[in-house]
Design a protein that fits this description.
single chain; mainly alpha; 79% helix
Length: 94
C-alpha cells in the first residue's frame, strides 16, 4: 500500500466522520421537540455527562486518549446545543 492509498483511506474516513456528525446534528430537531413537550431546558448537564462518560469508556476500551475523545464529544454536544438554540429561534448561527 502506498502513502497515497493510505491518505485516500484517511480521506474516506474523514468524509464518513463528517457525515456521521451531520447525522448526529439532524437529531437535534427531534430532541428539541421532546424537550419542548416535557418543558425541559435545551442544555441538560446530566445527559451531557452520560454522553461524555459513555464516550470516555469506549475510548478507554479502544486504547484511545480519553481526554481527547472527551474534548471531541464536548464539541459535538456544543454543536447540538447550538443547533437546538438555532431551531428554537435563539441561536447565534446564521
Amino acid at each position: 500500500m502506498t502513502i497515497e492509498n493510505v491518505r485516500q483511506e484517511i480521506e474516506n474516513i474523514d468524509r464518513e466522520l463528517v457525515e456521521l456528525i451531520a447525522k448526529r446534528i439532524e437529531f437535534a430537531d427531534n430532541i428539541l421537540k421532546y424537550k419542548h413537550q416535557a418543558n425541559l431546558p435545551i442544555n441538560d448537564d446530566t445527559q451531557n455527562d452520560v454522553v461524555i462518560d459513555r464516550a470516555v469508556s469506549i475510548a478507554t476500551e479502544k486504547g484511545l486518549d480519553s481526554t481527547l475523545v472527551k474534548q471531541i464529544f464536548n464539541l459535538l454536544i456544543q454543536m447540538n446545543i447550538e443547533r437546538q438554540h438555532e431551531l428554537s429561534g435563539e441561536g447565534n448561527l446564521p
